[in-house]
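I would like you to help me understand the sequence and structure tokens below and explain how sequence relates to structure.
___
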Amino acid sequence: MTWALPTIAAVLLVFAAISGRVEGTPITAPMIFTGSGLILGANALRLIDVHAGAEVVKLLAEVTLALVLFSDAFRVNLPALRTEIALPARLLGIGLPLTIAAGFAAALVLLDLTWPEALLLAVILAPTDAALGQAVVTLPILPSRVRQGLNVESGLNDGICVPVFLIVLAIAQAEAGALGSGSAAILVTEQIGFGTLAGLLAGAIAAAILVVVARRHRIDPLWAQTIPVTAAVLAYTVAVPLGGSGFIAAFVGGLTFGAIRHRATDVHEADGAEGEAALLDGAGDLASAVTFIVFGAVLLGPALGRLSWATLGYAVVSLTAVRMIPVALSLIGTHPRVPTVAFVGWFGPRGLATIVFVILILEEPGDLPHEELLLTTAIITIALSVLAHGLSAAPLADRYATWFQRHPRDEDRPARRTSG
């Protein structure tokens, strides 16, 4: 640990210095951070030499995901989303379960895993991470329905997958004899129940303070920015001692905080609401950057040493057929054109949530009979996604936007008819 922190700080400073030049190019921030970690990690220069199961790695991953989950949930403005709900609703309600089912089937065929382990791998790789292909959700010339659909999908599927992950992990541990079936059921019930309760309380208290006191002009704008961050921390730290899931608490807390805040916010206060999220976004981005550096240094290096054709084959299938076929099936009835289906299907990057799920499993090594194979496959899939989606995001977004402009048609019209 002697040189780990100064090395990570140096990487962040170097990236800050070149960030303007990198923006808009095929080279993305996660690619640079992951690559830097790989070069500086335990299998290369050994400047970031931290054990994967170390408490500091676990803490970093948990804090990062909690902040991101709260931020994503906080930004869900349900009234504003209603005009473009068809695509994300189909991707989450139909595409996500089909993706888990397809990943489960592929794991049974390609990998030597028990059925609970195969299902666990499918769930671990189900969440998407829009940050790996930032141009896809930020390029203004792309169709709004596509941008918003992918962004909302990425923001919500992390939170949806957390309770599913907890349930399937408990099943896998019970099947392996690490947990009794009764203990597993109680554990999952407590994690979901106490996590939800802590999130509701923390989100409601923080939003009430912000709304009531701010209307009396008694909150300094700088301190107002600390409220969402504090709410995320409060939700997580209340849930965990009670036996609840801090991640579920953070997600539910963000939904609750956002729902109350959006309901109390009029048009003239919209800019203020965005300003309040600035510190939360900054903290989440910084923590995410460090997590990708640690991923490259601590997880990816050893996983490359265990790489096999089976793991590589599953990674390729997971990023293509396992994602793209369910997306195509979920869009049946909305009449999108083939390039739109292909574009939406391809951009389902795997990133932060999967990294955190991997670290959570590493925290209790040896519970699963084929744990090393499962984790190696997940890590290789993330690395391939960082590379492939990073390199393709900007050029494919430009190409799709050009095609869309040359073939004008109201892509939203079928979706509105379908939604009633």
About this structure: The chain has 20 helices and no strands. The CA atoms of residues 116 and 256 lie 33 Å apart. The two ends are 58 Å apart (CA to CA). Confidence is low (pLDDT under 50) at residues 411-420.
